[in-house]
From TrEMBL, chain A:
<feature type="domain" description="Sof1-like protein">
    <location>
        <begin position="361"/>
        <end position="447"/>
    </location>
</feature>
<keyword id="KW-0853">WD repeat</keyword>
<keyword id="KW-0539">Nucleus</keyword>
<feature type="repeat" description="WD">
    <location>
        <begin position="285"/>
        <end position="316"/>
    </location>
</feature>
<protein>
    <recommendedName>
        <fullName>DDB1- and CUL4-associated factor 13</fullName>
    </recommendedName>
</protein>
<dbReference type="InterPro" id="IPR007287">
    <property type="entry name" value="Sof1"/>
</dbReference>
<dbReference type="GO" id="GO:0032040">
    <property type="term" value="C:small-subunit processome"/>
</dbReference>
<feature type="repeat" description="WD">
    <location>
        <begin position="62"/>
        <end position="104"/>
    </location>
</feature>
<feature type="compositionally biased region" description="Basic residues">
    <location>
        <begin position="441"/>
        <end position="452"/>
    </location>
</feature>
UniProtKB/TrEMBL annotation, chain B:
<dbReference type="GO" id="GO:0000462">
    <property type="term" value="P:maturation of SSU-rRNA from tricistronic rRNA transcript (SSU-rRNA, 5.8S rRNA, LSU-rRNA)"/>
</dbReference>
<dbReference type="InterPro" id="IPR015943">
    <property type="entry name" value="WD40/YVTN_repeat-like_dom_sf"/>
</dbReference>
<feature type="region of interest" description="Disordered">
    <location>
        <begin position="1"/>
        <end position="23"/>
    </location>
</feature>
<dbReference type="InterPro" id="IPR001680">
    <property type="entry name" value="WD40_rpt"/>
</dbReference>
<dbReference type="InterPro" id="IPR040315">
    <property type="entry name" value="WDR46/Utp7"/>
</dbReference>
<dbReference type="InterPro" id="IPR012952">
    <property type="entry name" value="BING4_C_dom"/>
</dbReference>
<keyword id="KW-0698">rRNA processing</keyword>
<keyword id="KW-0853">WD repeat</keyword>
<dbReference type="GO" id="GO:0032040">
    <property type="term" value="C:small-subunit processome"/>
</dbReference>
Amino acid sequence: MKIKVISRSTEEFTRERSQDLQRVFRNYDPILRPQEKAVEYVRALNAVKLDKIFARPFIGAMDGHVDAISCMAKNPSQLKEVFSGSMDGDIRLWDIAARRTVCQFPGHQGAVRGLTASTDGRILVSCGTDSTVRLWNVPVASFGDSDGSIKTTIEPASVYVWKNAFCAVDHQWDGEHFATGGAQVDIWNHNRSQPVNSFVWGSDTVISVRFNPGEPNLLASSASDRSINLYDLRMDTPVRKMIMMTKTNSIAWNPMEPINFTVANEDGYCYSYDSRKLGEAKCVHKDHVSAVMDIDYSPTGREFVTGSYDRTVRIFPYNGGHSREIYHTKRMQRVFCVKFSGDGSYVISGSDDTNLRLWKAKASEQLGVVLPREKKKHDYHEAIKKRYRHLPEVNRIARHRHLPRPIYKASSLLRVIADAKKKKEERRKAHSAPGSVTTKPLRKRRIIREVE
Amino acid sequence: MEETHNNDALSNNKPSTEQDIADELELRSKKYLRGEAANLKGLKDKKLKSQLIAKEKLYGQSAKAAAQAEKWIMPSEGGYIEAEGIEKTYRIKQETIAKEVDISSSRNQYDITLPELGPYTIDFTSSGRYMAIGGRKGHLAIMDMMNLSLIRELQVRETVRDVVFLHNELFFAAAQRKYPYIYNRDGTELHCLKEHGSVLRLQFLENHFLLASTNKFGMLLYQDVTMGTIAGKYRTGLGRTNVMELNPYNGVVSLGHSAGTVTMWKPTSSSPLVKMLCHQGPVSALAFHSNGHLMATAGVDKKIKLWDLRKFEAFQTLPGHANTLEFSQKGLLACGNGSYIQVLRDVSGAQNYSRYMTHSMVKGYQIGKLAFRPYEDVLGIGHSMGLSSILIPGAGEPNFDSWVANPFETPKQRREKEIRSLLDKLPPETIMLDPSKIGTVKYSKTEKPTAQEIEAEMEAAVEAVKGKKLKKKTKGRSKAGKIMPKKQDAIANAKRPYLEQKIQEEKNLAKKKQKTNEGGELPKSLQRFVHKKPSS
């Protein structure tokens, strides 16, 4: 006969000295944890609620300009540097870590309409309504002068005067060309005082230009004749043109899938296109209630930020129809330019009220150093939130956003209008001969035609 | 030919121990998989399919890791008795066991004789470290079972019917003559729960922080002990009972009634979830296995029945009385009757319980309550002459989880755990028969209601309108002649949506018929009237 019973000695299961860590024993048997799904659900619910509590996206405003901010540019080689140009001709370089001006670039007579920096971050190109393109040498930040008591002003390295006012400028990736938009698209070289090439298609003003991040010779522009154009620098004529019903204010290429780009349209929608197939949008992103003024992709290519004339900033997933986040404050006016920071964790917006505003890209993210245990906890919360996100209660809390009253009203009005239109169309369809009335999907509806 | 033979030989040559270990791990990991994998055969969505495949793979990996941890890292092994030759395990006496085991374990065999204040009832904390006792004549005490010391003892000078620990050893509730009371560890009375009335049995739902009680009037009451709110108060309507047990798997409270029925309750519904006839005669005891699908009932009809709760079917009926039943963590079933205890065991795992151990107390002792001590091979007995404790090898789970229930908990750990469990407190709505239903899709019963169902619904609506009393109005407006058309109008209004729906359906059907007929079949003279499709 053999007999054994459970017998535990205290020494074996407790720590030896009080300085030691407490001993932990695990038994993963599901029977020891009854109702684990309910517990997980409650944890998911708490995690979403905590997200709401910790959602403090606004970090700070950067004050300094005396007129509305019209354009911004990131410094591709410096994470914390961002340039901004205003309607009175002032250009500033900001240190977004310290949220102050590093230096100013005076010289423009009228509004600055376009800003861009070369890929190595040494040269800043600006253009404006005074028909000049100015190249500036960007001061290199060193450890010594990081206290920032001296505000320096910088002289332009070169000034190129041209025949027409400019609306936009963008620098080529890994090259020495940059493109300006004005009466036509001009391609410039750093060292030449005249454009090396010009593209004309139609006679309307070009509003925005943007180089493709993957293929340095490819370029997209939008014009006030509501068209979106594609150019190839190696050819002497534009490649493709597509005309929409409303004009496009800004274009952004998806940095991870550089065949796709998203346009910010005057009708309050953003449209994602495949550059090979312009006849149909890949996705329509709707939520803004007024014209979308600017758009910028996150470096991850998974989401983009938009600034709108309705005084809000929104963040959209690259393949989702609705925004995941809306940022607004009482003091923020019409947003004219937005940028994602180089690491994808911040969003910078420049608006009519002369301020740049710094936001977190994830509203409830914890800033600063995150300890490993905290990180683990955050990961766990993310996982359970994802698992239970379709449950109505979790979904409701996660989706809820407070909207300013005018936007709330406008969006409900827009919804009513859309519903009425839809109903009317349905009735028209029902009362006409079958097949005689067809509805175009929204992805095609706003496109007038495509020209090769 | 030879090559294949060689291959076979190679696979056979693989060390058998390795093979065995692999088999064993696979068997063990089944428990951690929590059910079978999703069937992806008919899935057409390729993206979803690949996502699900990746997820299933992750589940498999984690189950495997858990199985490996169970096999290699667990610090202790479970207890057992191995009988040799013609020995029978149920013949082995406690004295024999005492000789075989180590000193610290043999300390767990004791009899405490307290003849004046009995009979006694007992309760253990979930970690098994502390025991609360309640003597019928008002004797309450808490003991630390690890070093067998008395923490606090008090005399409340009135009848005590039941004691139960709340979420940790700091608080316990005692059902006294008129009301239940909550005491802390120092014996200070914290609350008097007047709402409950004169309670016969108490149960505490640890995940939900609910104290459930059944009182003299057959009332079942749930109270949230964190906020003090009453989560549910229901009249069972089946008479007074002191047979109440909690199913730890899903938090459903069961009551055994004098008519032989067992009812299962949740705090959010006034009618029982399940009402089953288990015995011909009063139910005397109930117990639940911690895996949730095994219930044991004992009746006055001299039967002990074991039920499979997935089918609500008795799979085994044993003869015998039992005043108290209790399942251990490892699934041993203890039955107490008079001064005799027998422990049953499912030897083969094929749902066949047979006698495992027996123990007789001094003649004349009346066993009131049996309770297995969690994470130990110990059975605590509360009886008319005091308390006893015996060793039942193989009863307890040998390995505890520090984050679930830790017998070696320090005060700091206890405080932290209290906060954590409060954060994870489940709402009463999560109590349901199948707790794994949470987060799954509920299928609607049928797509379309049948004609009969619609008819029944319409009739119900009409009845509802008919039952409505009209307001008494002045100046002759409540005359019978005025009321009659009003009522008829209301009935017609109630019927209208159903009738309209019916008409619409008939129309649709006719349209469909017409469409199918459109193709041809019309006489030539009529074909020119057929609606032409516009050519596109």
